[in-house]
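Worked example 3. Consider a protein that binds S-adenosylmethionine.
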Amino acid sequence: MTILYSTLANVYHEMYQHIFDYDKEFDFYDSLLKKNDCHMILEVGCGSGMLARRFINNEYDYMGLDLYYEMLEIACSEVRSGCFFQGDMRKLEFDRQFDAVLITGRSIAYVTDNRGIMDTLEGVHKALKDNGLFVFGVFEANAIFDNFDDFEQTIELNNKIVRRLSRMEKNLSTGWTYDWYAKYIIEEGNSTTEFDDVTTLRAFTRDEIRLFLKLSNFALKEIIEEGKAFTLVAKKS
Ligand SMILES: C[S@@+](CC[C@H](N)C(=O)[O-])C[C@H]1O[C@@H](n2cnc3c(N)ncnc32)[C@H](O)[C@@H]1O
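Given these inputs, the predicted complex is written out as structure tokens:
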């Protein structure tokens, strides 16, 4: 079980604002939502609320869901007018329906078995209005499994330096799964703290994801390529 969204939630929150372009990410979703006339949205895997703030500032009727309380605590303090819920994407249940459901930040990578993927997609289907829009990104299996080189990131924040040393290993136990071993070295003033993290992630081939969508009654509209990942745009059918 990863500690990135619990023990290291604050580190994630600070770090990803430097390594991730949330404005660009928001613009991407915003144009899809506008094109499809979607106003009431659910963001699954909302994390620390970095997109939530942008959706709310742009007048969307927004609800965010995440598994980790530590991430949601940050989201609630960052976006005071936000509507956030703790929950597992494999067990979505709502008493209302949305124009669109977005699983952001490729969070579905944390659901590693077929049953979990089907449960997630079926829950999204129920949460959507007829003809509702479903958008989610996944890691692409061919690209991920092509290169397991170690990599290192150094991020200089206001008052600390975070170094992350990453190593990937094939796992393959429940699909195109792989283990991500990460060492975090955090220097703050004169002190250095280290954390070891390991988590299993899942990548998908395009055919696999097409089949999952078909089995859960979604009509695939578009696949948007993005380096080692791709985003699926589908409609409830
Ligand atoms: C890579 S982060 C993305 C967070 C946010 N969307 C962002 O872009 O900063 C993945 C998120 O998925 C959440 N997550 C992992 N497994 C989950 C599950 N089963 N149900 C709901 N959220 C989950 C984590 O807590 C984390 O916030």
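Take a moment to read the result before moving on. The first strand starts at residue 40 and ends at 44. Residues 9-139+204-236 form a domain with the Rossmann fold fold (CATH 3.40.50.150).
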